[in-house]
Specification:
Two copies of one chain form a homodimer. The first copy, chain A, has 13 helices and six strands. Chain A has 289 residues and is α/β, with parallel strands linked by helices. Chain A has two domains: 58 residues, Helicase, Ruva Protein, domain 3; 214 residues, Rossmann fold, CATH 3.40.50.10880. A six-stranded mixed beta sheet of chain A has the order 3-2-1-4-5-6, with helices on both faces. In chain A, helix 8 links the parallel strand 1 and strand 2.
Amino acid sequence: MKTYYDCIPCLLRQTVEAMHMFVKDEGIQEKLIRFVLREIADMDLNETPPYMAGLIHRRIREVLHDTDPYKEIKEHFNQLALNMYENLHKQVEESADPFDTAVRIAIAGNIIDFGVRADIGPREVEETLLECLQRPIAFNASAELNHAILQADRILFLGDNAGEIVFDRLLIEQIPAQKVCYVVKAMPVINDAIMEDAVATGMTELVRVIDNGSDAPGTNFNLCSPQFIEEFHQADLIIAKGQANYETLNEVKNKDIFFLLKVKCPVIARDLGCDTGAVVLKSCCRKTV
Amino acid sequence: MKTYYDCIPCLLRQTVEAMHMFVKDEGIQEKLIRFVLREIADMDLNETPPYMAGLIHRRIREVLHDTDPYKEIKEHFNQLALNMYENLHKQVEESADPFDTAVRIAIAGNIIDFGVRADIGPREVEETLLECLQRPIAFNASAELNHAILQADRILFLGDNAGEIVFDRLLIEQIPAQKVCYVVKAMPVINDAIMEDAVATGMTELVRVIDNGSDAPGTNFNLCSPQFIEEFHQADLIIAKGQANYETLNEVKNKDIFFLLKVKCPVIARDLGCDTGAVVLKSCCRKTV
């Protein structure tokens, strides 16, 4: 998905929010915001919004001399989600349709996205869980995904955020472990999950986990490692979590991709053809496209 | 009030909203947004947000080759407000405290602000009226204003938007006409009232009306005419409507100014020390400061 004009105020809002959270020095604040304004003024609008967000957050880490400013936030949400895990696991097991319940919980976890809102707390997570368990899923491709999983040998599960990774575990537990490879970012960006989050939340004990070589949100092939791109090509099913994976992969052809996300912005809602707030499980399969 | 970092995404949102409303050519859209990004990247943040909004809208008018893109919107809201005038006039006359009621109606009119939101309609105006008539006024300086009006010989009433000007009439009718001079913008900017709005809504028949020489929202002395500045200095009471007048005049000393506004943004709410949405009548009097 290209960068729409409506994304530009939002990229600046993200910058200002992150700046308020981490940058205390006023001189550095001013330099940072002027840098981002100039970068966006010169950006190729055919690039995706996550590409630009990656660039912005790279700059934030540079000016802070901090490789991982969201580290504490990520640890906090991993722990919060781990504390919920047992109850959610029980809820999946006891439900009439464990696969559907696990899908809904995995999508609910996608609310833990500090790129979109910097004020997510336990209450938003609880409320989103309740909502996702009850609300109709937009483009509901749950049965289609279940079928695709049965058919597939190599499933690449593109993760999104720390905390959310625990909710993903519940869905991955519904899939034969040897089929699945879970993907994290290679380097920190916002609160996206990296390998240490996969270790901390037990994902590495459950399935094979690799990183995509990149420090940008979503899946920007230009920034990904050759090893990841090879895995992507060899996979016969992609499960992609979150807005940034949708924004960066929605135009990929000749690949069976299922997008699981909580829609948090009107631009993506318009692009998908649903409401802001929608709980989405959309299939972009080569057979059906 | 200086331009806070939080104002920057908002200035860009305003640009994008105005662009969607008026600029159809994609090439011009792109040039406009890149121009605004570069202007903000280089702007002196000690300038006020309305100064920057003035610059942005000047550029929008230039690229459109249209001196007044909001003309139809202004005419529409003048008419909408004129249609409400008789009932509101009756409501003031019949109320237990006509001055207080007129103050509340004048503040309610301030919702008609296309700088803040581009989707204002009759429903928002009706709802805001009801709210302003019932809700407590923040920093309620209504009695103080009433007293200051009695004492004053020369009152300068700084108007804000078209449509809103009709609501201002109801307050001005509570003041001896010979004391009041109503001020509009000299040239169009957003939906700010200009002389033709004062004529269309009967304000020119009620009191003396002048323009401030400027094409920017609020009251930027650097852009105002010497004649207006002289009037400002000679007035012994200033009644200033709307956010932009607050943003541009809140640091003026040695002048009795009463700010009447509906707070529509969190930055101004923080600066004032009230909630977003508050109905404000704040006195900044030299005697009390």
